[in-house]
Design goal:
Order of helices and strands: EEEEEHEHEEEHEHEEEEEEEHE
Largest sheet: 6 strands, mixed
Number of helices: 5
Low-confidence stretches: 1-68
Number of strands: 18
Mean pLDDT: 78
Distance between the termini: 46 Å
Helix content: 10-25%
Strand content: 25-35%
Radius of gyration: 19 Å
């Protein structure tokens, strides 16, 4: 049962909502896919530019710091009487009860934990019945821009005690999600399981599938975004380790695991960036900092 985001909210905040994401095509020579979010589009197309020029070192190692407010301070859920509980407000209608066999879910191994991947349709069923709490595993800026309606910010790698999740029962069903599509969220889910939370899942297809199905989202900026694909290769012995891509001067981040052959591919989906936006690629062997345009049109090597 699909429900448009703005059906749950008042007219005064309609401008803060979006229904789905549509890739308008690749950027003009900067290695991007331009994605425009509207309230009516439902299709998503992605094109990638693959070039084999290799880069072996940093083109610039300068970085800048940023103030990172506590996620407890960022629970942007308009018209939600309890914005920090991870649930959406009471829905207008509730889907009929049905059985879901979570034992049949695919799992992935992350940091010694087996993390369960839940299909987005099942997750939406739990959302509509208020049977799951939602935790956004992306950076704070990404959460502010847009997130699942009702979700709280709980970035992967951040201390649990500064997240609203710390106040939730460890037996409650918790859904983590990110946009890459389940790399950051699986890291956060593993952290929660290691902390004693026993009923944790991640959205298998990720945030943008949720948004593309016109499920409810809210945020400050959901109009336009670009996708940059950063590919690379390292020693295959580093299989399973994570590669992180972080925007310089911001807490926005994406991640992906290293495959068995040593390759990796990180899809960077940030709002309001250009090819000149600077990011740092964190590899097991060291960091590489450069522009999105430069890094996304080369094979990054460790």
């Amino acid at each position: 049962m699909k429900r448009r985001a703005f059906l749950a909210l008042s007219t005064g905040i309609v401008t803060g909502l979006a229904g789905c994401a549509t890739d308008a095509g690749s950027g003009a020579g900067d290695g991007t896919d331009s994605t425009v979010s509207t309230a009516t589009a439902t299709a998503t197309r992605t094109t990638d530019t693959d070039e084999a020029q290799e880069i072996g070192g940093n083109d610039d190692t300068a970085t800048t710091g940023t103030d990172r407010p506590s996620p407890r301070e960022v629970t942007s859920n308009p018209n939600d009487p309890k914005p920090a509980d991870g649930y959406p407000p009471e829905p207008d209608s509730v889907p009929a009860e049905r059985d879901i066999d979570t034992d049949a879910y695919e799992t992935i191994g992350v940091d010694g934990e087996q993390v369960r991947l839940a299909p987005v349709e099942d997750v939406h069923y739990w959302w509509a019945r208020r049977e799951a709490r939602f935790a956004d595993a992306r950076g704070m800026a990404q959460y502010r821009n847009e997130h699942v309606y009702g979700a709280v910010s709980s970035p992967a790698g951040s201390p649990l005690d500064i997240s609203p999740v710390a106040d939730w029962s460890q037996s409650d069903r918790i859904i983590c999600y990110c946009g890459c599509p389940h790399h950051l969220s699986s890291v956060r889910a593993a952290e929660l399981q290691q902390a004693g939370y026993s009923n944790v899942f991640v959205i298998d297809e990720g945030y943008y599938e949720w948004k593309g199905l016109d499920y409810p989202v809210v945020g400050e900026n959901v109009s336009e975004r670009r996708t940059y694909r950063i590919r690379g290769r390292v020693d295959p012995e580093q299989q399973g380790e994570m590669v992180w891509v972080r925007e310089v001067g911001s807490d926005r981040m994406e991640a992906a695991p290293i495959r068995a052959d040593g390759t990796f591919s990180v899809h960077v989906k940030f709002a309001d960036v250009t090819g000149q936006t600077r990011v740092t690629v964190e590899l097991p062997t060291g960091d590489i900092t450069g522009t999105l345009a430069g890094l996304s049109t080369r094979v990054v090597t460790g």
